[in-house]
Structures are given as C-alpha cells and as structure tokens.
C-alpha cells in the first residue's frame, strides 16, 4: 500500500494533471482509499468510496484545482 502511495506521490506534475480528467479521476479515488486504509481512517475509506460514483461528478474539479495550486491531491490523512 505504501508503495502505491509513494509511486503516485512521485508522479510528474503533468501526469497528475492528466489524471484529473473526469474519466481518469478513478485513479485519485483509489489513491484516497489507499491513503485512508494505510492511516486506518474509516471515515476516509467511506468518503473515498463515495468519491468513485456519486462524487465523481464534482470531485474531479476539486482534484484539478488542488493539483494546479498545490501539485498534490487534497485528502484528510
């Protein structure tokens, strides 16, 4: 799990930006779930799962803004 998190954290900025496209945003949802599992954060796991289907409509915009401004995706843990 830590290897997946580290690999995604070390991606180039442009690749992170491309992964914010609505169809590819599933990568960030999996990343959120992995970070929450690694931190044993139950609420984060539930919210990460909700980011996949109902949240995918607007979460990609949040991801895009965060990646442009901070060069990383925002999450609780």
Number of helices: 5
Mean pLDDT: 90
Helical proportion, percent range: 55-70%
Number of domains: 1
The secondary-structure element order is HHHHH
Instruction: Please report the total strand number as a whole number.
Output: 0
Gyration radius, in Å: 11 Å
Based on secondary structure, the structural category is mainly alpha
For the largest beta-sheet, the strand count, sense and barrel status come to:
none
Low-confidence stretches: none
Global shape: globular
Strand content: under 5%
Quote the distance from N terminus to C terminus. Answer: 14 Å
How would you describe the overall organization of this protein?
With 77 residues, this protein is an all-alpha fold. The chain has helices at 2-9, 13-18, 26-38, 42-50, 56-70. The chain has one domain (2-69). Helix 1 packs across helix 3 (26-38). It is globular and about 30 Å long. The model has no long low-confidence stretch (mean pLDDT 90).
